[in-house]
Amino acid sequence: MNAFIEAVRVAGTPQGPAPVVLLGAEGTVDVLPIVIGFDEAASIARGLDAIDIGRPLTHDLLLDVVEELGGRVDRVHVSEVRDETYIADLYLNTPRNDVIVDARPSDALALAARTDCPITVDETVFEDGGEPLDRFDDLDDIREVVQ
Q: Where is the BFN domain (predicted)?
């Protein structure tokens, strides 16, 4: 399924606040919530907002390295759930060949936010984990929590 980053919010959980990235998909009003870390959530938001802080942070650095070596991020694919953990693949075009790199969804989405590359989600993964978007309306945007 073709997907996009709908929002990055912060949910309250019994263990405390937890950032969640909401992936929307074409043809549905549901979203796929993926719980991620605060640093990755802030990085995704910075990528979406195209904020340059002067020095590269981790995801900016990784993208710089890929591009300096002649590669580019082709797409991000959330492929499965394994032991309650989402699995993503980062598709890269490189001068030698195209490669698929195993990645955490949060890291892959932080790169997608910086490159505007396509994001896809396995249909079964979305169907199994999808929830109505309005369930997340009361959650704070990550930008309001992390400054």
A: 1-133
